[in-house]
Amino acid sequence: MKNNANLLLASAAAFCCGLAMPAMAQQSGAVITPIGTPSSQNVPGAAPLPNPGTQGDTTSDGTNQARAWNVTPRIGLTGTLSDNINLSSTDKQTGFITQLSPGIRIDARTARLKMFLDYSLNGLRYSTGSSNSEAQNQLNTFGTLEAIDNWLFLDFSGQIYQQIINPFGVQSPSNAFVNTNTTETSTYRLSPFIKGQLGGSADYYLRYNASVTNSQNGSLSDVSLSQWLGQVRGNTRFRNLNWAIDGSQQNTDYSRGRNYEDARLRGLLTYQLYPEFRISGSGGYETNNYQSIDNEGQSTYGYGFDWTPTERTQVSGFKEYRFFGNGHNVLLSHRFPLSSIRYTDVRDVALIPNQSSTIGLGTVYDQYFDQFASLIPDAAARAAYVTNLLNQAGIAPNAQAVSDYAAQRPRVQRLQQLSMVLYGSRNSITFLAGRNENEALTVFGQNTAIAGEASRVVQQGYTLSFLHRLTPLTGLNLLGSRFKSKSGLTDALDTTTTSYQIGVSTRLGAKTGGSLSVRHTNFDSDTNPYDENSIVASLTMFF
Predict the structure, then answer these.
(1) Which of 54, 272, 386, 542 has the fewest C-beta atoms lying within 10 Å of its C-beta?
(2) Spatial contact of 452 and 489, defined as CB atoms under 8 Å apart
(3) What is the average pLDDT value for the chain, to the nearest integer?
């Protein structure tokens, strides 16, 4: 029954996605040339080039109107010459990897449907090694369907990506390499919700979330999640005092572990001291069976603030006493005229990997998208321009500095992320930093085969990218990254991956782009360290 339910949910999500597929997470080394059409010919950072699929239709009065549906098929060919194709410290072999990647991107902006879908199928062939060929899927899709005017909505999303299994195992310089420490993971989510008013004095909101996360590795758990969320909020006789009551009920099923239940009920008061500053406090009760066979209950309380001095600045924080200790949610965000910075810090219970819960194009994409708002007012043209700028810089729009691993149980996770972007007339700099700290929430009845699962695991890393426009058609990009995993065991496990890359990307035709890059990777580990150097050439054609 569970497998049938998972299949039904995945099929339904895929159908919603199909209504409306570029793999935004371009693998390292496959840098695509910028192909975009900004409204202003003076936008800094990348060349103003035409992009099929984002051009509008010309109306009878001669104006350009954005299409409700934009469909852009593409095909890419990437070749990687590596001096260590099997990522070994003792048996280094030179080999060639050929990758053929047909894909499609769909953007929909209709009266009822807003969605994005990007899919690619990566066919890989190896000149040497135990495996001659491999196929990988990449998918990023999300959207909202308004089923009944301003009342009933349906959110949906889907992701397919390559995920680390063991945080202390071999890390690959790109997804093109054969690595038994990665697996293809997919997550599909359907989330209908309603919202409205109760007698004109209060607002209500009710949502149901259903998601399935599956892995191709048979030793890992598939995770099914079912959740109800609800809230009622309103005003009081005191003009600056508002109230809210929210609740949730959740069931999580690990196919190779336990089922978990979690329920919460909370009241929240918010007082607006100034137009731009407000404080809040909460009190409630929660029950769960994360640390026992039967449900256990405990009171919760918390406090926080929100400060928005300008439309370009936001500072907020909320701290709450929970059953696992103190949880918190902190956000700092500010946009300067030519740069922006964003920092988030969240400590909470995590049930699935962070990649599976991230919906959208990513923080870096959002920052660049906001930066170009005044120069490129049209949203479709701006989206194409930002995507191409990041592709030329060698950064995926949904890039993260830290890649989460395939955890096999609930955990307490503290995730800190910092992103900064800076651009000028010919240059663009992007900096990402992150820290992911995990502690096992329970060890009862769970598989402890993965190193570090029963202890504290800390992952931290950063990525720095520099893009320089050499000519209107050609860009030079420099990329450096460092990623470290460390356990809290007595005999601490410790791995570090360092990578440097320099590349050039250029426009070869109206719908064709190419790139050439050189990369060096060092993996420092007590068990299987390696050094790898490679030359990567790619060609992409849009239709």
Answers:
(1) 272
(2) yes
(3) 84
CA pair distance 404, 235, nearest whole angstrom = 41
Element (H, E) at 14: helix 2-19
Query: Closest Cα to residue 182, out of 353, 384, 62, 2?
Result: 353
CA distance 235 to 71: 45
Helix (H, G, I), strand (E, B) or coil at 421: strand
| DSSP 3-state of 479 | strand
Segment 426-439, tens digit of pLDDT: 899 999 999 999 98
Which tokens sit at 436? Answer: 């992911």
CA 457 from chain centre, in angstroms, equals: 21
Q: d(Cα 389, Cα 368) in Å, to the nearest integer?
A: 9
Phi, psi values for residue 25, rounded to 5°: -85, 75
Identify the H or E element spanning 499: strand 494-509
Please, which pLDDT band fits residue 45 given cuts at 50, 70 and 90? very low
Q: Give the three-state DSSP class for 353.
A: coil
Residue 41 near residue 48 (C-beta atoms within 8 A): yes
Is residue 4's pLDDT more than 60? no
CA-wise closest residue to 364 among 432, 465, 464, 433: 432
Nearest-CA neighbor of 513 among 76, 58, 69, 23? 76
Please answer whether residues 185 and 406 qualify as being in contact, where contact means their C-beta atoms are separated by less than 8 angstroms.
Answer: yes
Q: Which pLDDT score is estimated for 264?
A: 97
Taking the complete model, does pTM exceed 0.70, yes or no? Answer: yes
Rounded to the nearest 5 percent, the helix, strand and coil shares of the chain are 10, 55, 35
Number of domains into which the chain is organized? 1
Cα 181 to Cα 445: distance, rounded to the nearest angstrom? 24
Q: What is the pLDDT of residue 212?
A: 95
Q: Which residue has the tokens 């400590």?
A: 347
So what's the pLDDT on residue 130?
62
Q: Is 506 helix (H, G, I), strand (E, B) or coil?
A: strand
CB 367 within 8 A of CB 432: no
Give the CATH number, domain containing residue 62: 2.40.170
Residues 6+ apart with CB under 8 A from 319: 302, 303, 304, 326, 327, 328
Phi, psi of 328 (to 5 degrees): -155, 165
Cα 523 to chain centroid, rounded: 24
Antiparallel, parallel or unpaired: β 69-82 and 95-109 = antiparallel
The residue count for the chain:
543
Closest CA to 393 of 75, 9, 28, 3: 28
Helix (H) or strand (E) holding 458: strand 457-471
Contact 300, 324 (CB under 8 A): no
pLDDT single digits (tens) 289-309: 998 888 999 999 999 999 999
Residue pair 143/155 in contact by the 8 Å Cβ criterion: yes
